[in-house]
Structure to design on (706 residues):
């Protein structure tokens, strides 16, 4: 995959039909969609596609770079990662979605098996339920990108040029846009922005924003190899990490295993976690974990819904909602929604805590009891709860706790009738606050040592639970079945201002953090390593919830708000990805687009004098075209992915095979606009599994980078 500049083709000003800005995973998906459409029906006129990726890692981009450290993991299993649309996208409402031959749209696991058979390299020897490194995912993305580009280049009237440059500005012009990099410009008819994670400065009102510029503060963990050098984070130093989510775990593993530390299996019969950490001497002396809850992201369970290596049978085992359904959301909006004018569109807004969270708890309880007590108990709950749900739809109690009590009363009654002991009951408060961190809102009711000991016990139990899988362990099944399998319902609730401004702020502050901690954590292997680091005393989690930080002449003084425990760190790392905001983006492109009025930030208007909620997302129409300052929409400019987060939710997801994935659907809609075909009137082209009659196989890669 070497990059050879094609200087003979370089011009001062290029003319192209399509420009794709950002060469990461969504670019790979976009190129696949173009390859499918153009292979099925080549364009009548010459079509040049130009793709820009500032890192030069076309197909993977920065976040999924194949050159990043191998200590960073995905949080999705190998069989649930895909690269292309498949049969699940050919629904009755979208006629003629063209598909590439089956051999050109493997799952990530299938791609790994082929590579393992070809090379014997153990890096590719993954089970369907293994969680891969992001570097390996990046390697696969680049390989699939190469295949799709090669296929496009063999299609009549289609050519593709790649530019390892950063796009800094886009300006309207007659017939399209002028796309500018440093030193060159390109005339294009259409632009797709799939820029992924762009470095963003912390908001000044947040703790990272207040620490900006202080000596010893590392404002961004990525790229790890540049931000967390031994000069920035010396061996033996005491280091604080803000946040305990996925980015923080990447940083912690890079500072330990990435510096030569080893994780070894514990000897049989010893009372220790599955792994023990062997120091290299180059890691920090202590890494202090800091988060509002005091808890790290929990281990994702072994995904037994994904044992089919193709990833196409997951939905057969996925949880289907009984209470938290789109129909229930519609009825709640009809009976209890508050009308609000959002850019000329009347939306009947809900309150997430009042109207949705009680249904989340009920749905989780249903999954829990069907596993612990059997399907008969679950069916009985369905019958017993029917009237309560109907009442809730029409008149939900004012507080989440009252709503939960209303809905859970028949469930608790059924558990009482069976005489279930406490340990076999669904304890929703313990699930959301497992160490009782919400029990005492003020004062120092805990000692740091007590919190640390309970944390070790909690992490051990969590790892054991995750090892049982998302179909067998009742709590992990409840979390996975509701917070992950029903994400489309959550989107149905939240997207496009579906909840009030105040509720959306509350969702970001409370409920989304629960989602991130309970269901969007790292895989089992990574969390076993985290546990080993805690057991070894390298990772210190004794500070607990609500930490406060004060800078002094030698670093940072950290104090636990609940425990009163105090530590001192010479280095403090911002261990989270800052949310997208074009005004604070380090990428000049978005600031220039704002200045030109081509984009604007989306607002959820506050009700009754309450402040608006402005999450940082761009204002986009349903087809992902930016709404400009004057409310105009240019359909030739499209933005997909992270810049929409907050307007729409779960924009960070990778494409998933066999699931009618929204990620692929968005790119398919864009591709249909590009080729000028809403559908194939005579149905879709032949796409039999063996590829008969389908687009021809792509030849070996001949990459051109201008």
């Amino acid at each position: 995959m070497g990059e050879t500049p094609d200087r003979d083709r370089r011009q001062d000003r290029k003319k192209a039909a399509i420009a794709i800005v950002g060469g990461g995973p969504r670019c790979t998906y976009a190129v696949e969609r173009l390859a499918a459409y153009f292979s099925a029906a080549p364009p009548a006129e010459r079509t040049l596609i130009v793709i820009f990726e500032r890192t030069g890692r076309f197909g993977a981009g920065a976040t999924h770079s194949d050159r990043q450290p191998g200590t960073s993991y995905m949080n999705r299993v190998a069989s649930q990662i895909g690269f292309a649309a498949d049969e699940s996208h050919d629904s009755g409402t979208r006629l003629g979605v063209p598909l590439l031959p089956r051999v050109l749209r493997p799952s990530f696991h299938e791609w790994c098996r082929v590579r393992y058979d070809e090379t014997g390299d153990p890096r590719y020897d993954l089970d369907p339920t293994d969680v891969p490194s992001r570097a390996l995912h990046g390697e696969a993305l680049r390989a699939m990108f190469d295949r799709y580009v090669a296929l496009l280049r063999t299609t009549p009237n289609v050519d593709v040029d790649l530019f390892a440059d950063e796009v800094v500005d886009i300006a309207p012009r007659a017939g399209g846009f002028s796309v500018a990099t440093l030193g060159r410009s390109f005339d294009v008819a259409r632009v797709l922005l799939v820029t992924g994670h762009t470095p963003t400065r912390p908001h000044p009102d947040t703790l990272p924003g207040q620490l900006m510029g202080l000596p010893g503060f590392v404002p961004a963990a990525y790229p790890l190899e540049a931000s967390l050098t031994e000069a920035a984070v010396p061996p033996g130093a005491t280091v604080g990490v803000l946040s305990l989510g996925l980015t923080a775990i990447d940083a912690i593993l890079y500072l330990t295993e990435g510096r030569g530390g080893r994780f070894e299996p514990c000897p049989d019969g010893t009372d220790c976690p599955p792994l023990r950490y062997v120091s290299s001497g180059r890691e920090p002396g202590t890494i202090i974990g800091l988060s509002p809850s005091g808890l790290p992201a929990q281990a994702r369970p072994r995904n037994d819904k994904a044992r089919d290596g193709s990833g196409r049978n997951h939905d057969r085992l996925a949880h289907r909602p009984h209470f938290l359904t789109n129909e229930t959301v519609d009825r709640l909006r009809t009976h209890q929604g508050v009308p609000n004018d959002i850019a000329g569109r009347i939306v009947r807004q809900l309150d997430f805590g009042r109207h949705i969270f009680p249904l989340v708890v009920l749905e989780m309880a249903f999954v829990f009891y069907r596993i612990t007590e059997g399907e008969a108990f679950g069916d009985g709950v369905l019958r017993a709860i029917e009237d309560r749900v109907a009442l809730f739809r029409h008149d939900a109690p004012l507080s989440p706790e009252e709503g939960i009590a209303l809905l859970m009363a028949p469930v608790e009654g059924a558990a009482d009738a069976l005489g279930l002991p406490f340990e076999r009951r669904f304890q929703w408060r313990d699930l959301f606050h497992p160490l009782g961190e919400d029990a005492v809102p003020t004062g120092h009711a805990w000692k740091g040592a007590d919190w640390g000991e309970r944390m070790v016990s909690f992490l051990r139990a969590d790892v054991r639970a995750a090892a049982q899988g998302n179909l067998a362990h009742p709590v992990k099944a409840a979390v996975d079945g509701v917070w992950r399998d029903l994400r489309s319902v959550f989107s149905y609730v939240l997207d496009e201002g579906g909840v009030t401004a105040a509720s959306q702020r509350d969702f970001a502050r409370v409920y989304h953090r629960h989602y991130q901690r309970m269901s969007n954590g790292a895989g089992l292997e990574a969390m076993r390593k985290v546990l080993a680091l805690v057991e070894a005393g390298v990772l210190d989690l004794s500070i607990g919830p609500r930490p406060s930080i004060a800078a002094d002449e030698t670093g940072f003084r950290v104090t636990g708000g609940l425990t009163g425990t105090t530590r001192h760190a010479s280095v403090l790392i911002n261990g989270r990805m800052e949310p997208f905001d074009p005004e604070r983006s380090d990428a000049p492109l978005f600031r220039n687009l704002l200045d030109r009025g081509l984009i604007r930030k989306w607002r959820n208007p506050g009700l009754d004098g309450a402040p608006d909620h402005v999450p940082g997302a761009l204002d986009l129409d349903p087809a992902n075209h930016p709404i400009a300052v004057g409310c105009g929409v240019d359909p030739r400019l499209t933005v997909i992915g992270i810049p929409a987060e907050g307007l729409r939710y779960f924009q960070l997801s990778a494409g998933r095979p066999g699931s009618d994935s929204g990620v692929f659907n968005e790119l398919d809609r864009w591709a249909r606009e590009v080729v000028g075909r809403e559908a194939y009137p005579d149905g879709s082209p032949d796409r039999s599994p063996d590829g008969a009659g389908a687009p021809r196989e792509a030849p070996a890669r001949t990459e051109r980078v201008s």
